[in-house]
Amino acid sequence: MNLVVLHALRCVGSTGLTRVASFTGLTESEVESELIDLAVAGLVTHDRHFGGWSLTESGRAADASGTKAELETAGTRPALAEAFDEFLVLNPELLDLCTAWQMRSVDGVTTVNDHSDTAYDARVLALFTDLHTRALVVIAALAAAAPRFARYEPRLTSALTRARAGELACLADSMDSFHTIWAELHEDLLATLGIARWGG
Amino acid sequence: MGWVRHLSATLPDPPEVLGGKAHGLVLLHRLGLPVPAGVVVITDACRAFLADGTLPDGLTDELATAVETLGASMVSVRSGAAVSMPGMMDTVLNVRPTPGTLAEALKSVFSSWNTPRARTYRTLHGIPHDLGTAVVVQRMVFGDRDSRSGSGVAFSHDPNTGEKVPFGEVLFGHQGSEVVSGRALTLPLRELDREPGVWQGLQDALVRVEQHYRDACYVEFTYESGTLWLLQVRPGKFTGAAAVRLATDLADEGAITRAEALLRVAPHHLQHVRTPRITPDADAIARGLGVCPGVAAGRVAVTADEAVRLAVHGPVVLVRPETSPDDIRGLAAATGIVTARGGPASHAAVVARSMGKPAVVGVADLVVGADSVTLGGREVEVGAMVTIDGTSGVVVLGTPPVVTGGADAHLRRLLEWADEVSGDRSGRGEAERLAAARAVLGGGTGRSAAE
């Protein structure tokens, strides 16, 4: 049973092959064959109508016990929790930056950033780059506790590189944006550490 | 002169020295309004601390001596820079006024000037990094002292419409920090009439401050055992249709001239006058923070799966405690989103804007169940029709009337004044008409005079 693919669905949510492949670094055909095995085991289901894959309740439970066992075997829960605290310091700043990329204040009015002011965009992009540098330190600490977190480094770097090359949606506005990957990382940490989101 | 000043009506220093918060408190003193006794540590002290990493010589003793005169058993220690940096810096409540404890609280607030997030905020907003923050130390007042205590925030006009009616939120039996955090269940400000003395005092204060600013105002307040205290004040900073209505009403009252009214409304505000809005008289069942403008009407779905399923039959509003990556496809299928948690820079807000979908976040009294949600104490079943306004943050049952250009009568008047000033009565766009008048008045097309 492949925990990597199972865990990808836990962090990304119900989705198609492309996002699982991007999350795991596997090819889409490798992902598909893993998913079929997981479906046979009753851990995931395929929705023909929406074309995506989802965890079943037992899949969710299997992922939770798998990641828990992984941390217990390695004895790195305290280290991961400590690095998670570092992540939580960066998180509001990253969300501020995404917001600044989408919206800006002109004459005291918050308006959509239409990206016509290249100096403003350059300033926000430079701040993203600076945050990314600090994020890499946190990801290294996460990866030292649980190696699979290393995957986030090339993913975030690639999103930033594309944005710097002019693909403006790659920071906050696409399905493979810096923000989307960051949100998956956040969900991954909550899932791995077994921290429930605020209920309601 | 030292590093510490007593807050009083005669304190002459400008905001650069006192910070914006203390400067506002001095104004409240001048207007004879109730402010808890306090002192301010000036921005110079912060700059010295940031340069050396230690509190300047004599500051701890000077502060302790000054605080002793307040006669308080507990004080609050709050940041307050010359330029507003909301939520970026530390505030320490319930501090014992001993020298050591005060010094630690002061260091913590000073240090928070330089967190990476605060530095990023300043770079984004073009605020110099060397300003430093002042620190206000005041006698604690307790909104949670007893059943006749509470706290809230209030505007002198409705910031959504500009209408002249006190507007805000109140939280009975709680501290002000819980109002601002959005964690607790707040009530509309008018509920404060259950405490008539406080309600009357607050309304009088709003009138007096507005007369001083000649502009709408915002205050934060706490009342303790039936006694009102004001903790912060600033101009209202209205935008869009609310800015237009406020400026024309103030001119009609004679509080400002028509020329000033034209300078109060920047051409950028006019774009927002045209954003669709739920009519102000619609009966809101809940209220949060509008973070992506526009109106969305649809059937309630409480999970991403449900949103995808229901969207086949018509528009859906996704209602969630907060969002996780799994909600993205639900939001993609929905026409709008409501969340219990979150602020303008939350995951939900960022994702909603990336898809251009109206969004209301931070609805404190929202509880999401398995097949219904509770909004403002009312149970709303999955599949029920709701309408949300991503500007004002209101949630309404059913499909209320939606207006575009709600301030039309006011806007028409303002633009007539603009044409009188410019002398140009040719058919042009609204922003051009306003900009031409502002050019004649010397206001240019840039920042509004209200700032």
UniProtKB/TrEMBL annotation, chain A:
Taxonomic placement: Bacteria, Bacillati, Actinomycetota, Actinomycetes, Pseudonocardiales
Record-given protein name: Transcriptional regulator
UniProtKB/TrEMBL annotation, chain B:
Source organism superkingdom: Bacteria
A Pfam entry, by short name: PEP-utilizers
Record-annotated PEP-utilising enzyme mobile domain positions: 315-393
SUPFAM superfamilies given in the database record: Glutathione synthetase ATP-binding domain-like, Phosphohistidine domain
InterPro entries: ATP_grasp_subdomain_1, PEP-util_enz_mobile_dom, Phosphohistidine_dom_sf, PPDK_AMP/ATP-bd, Pyruvate_phosphate_dikinase
Domain Pyruvate phosphate dikinase AMP/ATP-binding as annotated: residue spans: 53-183
Full protein name: Pyruvate, phosphate dikinase
